[in-house]
Structure formats: structure tokens, C-alpha cells
Amino acid sequence: MKFTIPALATAVALTAMPAFSAELVLSIGSRGYGPAVDRNLARYEEMHPDVSIEWNKVSDVPGETRKLYVTSLTAQSPTPDIFAVDVIWAGEFAQRGWLEPLNGLLDEETIGAFNPSLLAASTVDDKVHALPLYADGIHFFYRSDLLEKYGLDVPQTWEDVVAASNTITEGEANPQFYGFVSMWAKIEGLFMNWLAFANGNGGGFYDAEGNVAVNSPANIEATQFMVDLLHEHRMAPDSILNARPDDARTLFQQGRAAFLMVQDFVYAPLSAENSPVAGKFDFTRVPYFEGHEDANSTTMGGWFLGINPNSENKEAAADFLADFTAKEQQLTAAVEDNRAPTIQAVYDDEAMAGNETLAKFGKNYDFGVVRPSAGTGSDYPRVSEIMQLEITNALHQQKTVEEALNDAQAELEALLAD
Predict the structure, then answer these.
(1) What range does the domain containing 118 cover?
(2) Residue 32 pLDDT level (bands cut at 50, 70, 90)
(3) What DSSP letter does each residue of 95-110 carry, written as one string?
(4) Given the DSSP bridges, would you call strands 298-307 and 257-263 parallel, antiparallel or unpaired?
């Protein structure tokens, strides 16, 4: 299905837009947002003939792009005017003064249309410094054929998952078949997993007052469940402790697991024509613990667009930014390019009827949570390392859960003391 902006809406937009004369530079990779970039640039330049936009096609390798940005922003270069940042960079860049606050450039209605969980990742000192462009996140995939075979409902809680796993694995009676697989190697994905479990139990990285509280009772309980899932319930293979996203996906795709918890990129290979589980799986939001049905248990990622504080054309850049990320453009990118929108209202649009999978991912993002990069800024990489290490210590039973999270708490408090 193709979606185009109705002629009337386009005419209204053309008459309502302010007039600018500027030369702008946009930095974004050619792969991440795909053909939407070319389409959006052509559309905007047609609407604003006095504005020219140069597309600086930076590397799609995040580390390479980050180095380029750091060099340019440290030197206070006025270009690029608009640039794309990873979700976990936004907080650091804002704290370092490398992103222009948007609250004075865009109205609150424009900013408020975006997913609030994602906006939190670019909010520092109560100011939004970048707008989310497209999203991804962790989801809970399940073998729909096996749930049907054993007369089971789709699990909503982790308690449901344990019960369903026991029923299926006992019924399959295959020692090479497991109830659950995920990415529990000592990588960023492990911390994302932990945030999903912790928030799903009413916990999280911060407490209600915004203080670091990784050793809270709710977090200890959720982490103990992760340990028990492996060592007591024996739902997962020992190899989960070394598994990365594609390792987990491979086991599930081989038909060797009932449940899989990883990012949404796995949907395409799982549903490919030659996939052993094509037509035999589905997905839902990441489960929560009983009594926490409103928990934000979907750990989200994504990319944002922000404005260079050294830009000589901030107003024009802000107008372009608002247009590039607007609902109409996000809807087109969703329908034509399969990019997950960051404005939740897009998922309810009738044009999304042709992409039920993406619309379903979007509903999961109603329960989104992001990593604590906005609050920890340049310390975030070390924050993640500390959490990965101590979660790993608990999962390997080298420390008790309480010991591991107490140690993490102490290290984080020392790190963030300044």
C-alpha cells in the first residue's frame, strides 16, 4: 500500500509554512531511514524554494558517526545544522551543550505528539533536545502453533510464561527444546533485558524521586526471577549466558524454543519463506509480573534528530526538523519503508491497516521505557558496563542477587556523585 498526503493538506501546508531563506546541512546515514530521506528533502525544498538542503551521508556505523560528530561539535562548527543521534547519545550531547534545546524553537503541541518514553531520552533539565525519528525495541515472540497445540493463552505475565513453558517443554519431551531464549551475554542487550524485567515488576533504574535505586526490593525480586528462570525452572539453555540477539533468534528459528525476547529486527528472518517457524509464531509486549499490568516493560531504542547549537540557521533548521518528523512523513515512512513511527497517533491511522505487524509493534511502545542515558549523560557507557557486570555476576551465581545489585548501587552512586 502506498500513502500520499492529500492535495488539500498539502495546499494548506504550503500556505501555512513560514518563509525562510537558508542553506542547511543534514547529517544522517543512508541506510537507517532509507528512501524517506530523499523523499522528505524533495518535498520540503518544493515547499520552501528559498531553502536548499545538503544531505551529508554519514556512516551507518554508529561509532564512526559519533566520532565525526564529537570532532565537529567540539570545534563548534556551524554544520551540520541538523544531525541524527542514537537514543543513548542524546543525553550526553545535551549535557555537553551539543544539542540546541527545542522548547524555544518548537511549540509544545509539536513536541508533545511524540512517544513520551522516547522523549525522556533527550530531555535534560526539563528541556527536550532532540525529536525521535524512528523506534525499535524488545518484544516477546512466541510459538503460536505450540500454544494452540497445548490449549494455552498468550502469556501476559512472567508467571504465565513459566507455566506455559513447563506445559510445552514437558509435552514436547525434547531435551534440545527450551522454554525461553534471549540475549544474556554481557552486552548492552543484557542491560536492556534487565530494565524490562525490573520495570515489569514496578522497579527500574530510578525510584519515584529520580534517585538511582537499582538495589530496590522490586529490582532484587525481578533479578532473582531471571536467575531462577535459568537455574531453578531450567527454562533456558546454559548458552543463554553467552547469547547475543542473533544467537537467540537462531535457536528460536530452528524450532528449539517456545519463547524469544529480543529486538524487533528478528521478525523479518523469522517470517522469511524458508524459515522453519514462518507462520508458526507471533509476538506480544514483554510480559510483566502479576499486579503490574501497566508497567513499562518494552525497552526501546531508536534514532533522533537534533539541531546543532552552532548553526547559523536555527529557526529554519527547527522548521525543517518539525516537518521531517511530522505525522504525515512518519506515516509515509511506515507504510512505504516499514519504519516504526515515534508519534503514537500514526499507529491508529487507517493507512496502517496494510502493515499490521508494524502497528502491533507500535502498541507495545505504549509501554516503553528507555535506558537511563539522559540522566547519566557522558557517564552512561560506564553505567551500562557496571550493570552488565553485576547482572552477569548474579546470573552466573558468582554473587547473590542482593550482593550484585548492592555492589552496582555503590559503584553507581560513586560514579554519579559529581
Answers:
(1) 7-136+301-369
(2) confident
(3) HTT-S--STTTS-HHH
(4) unpaired
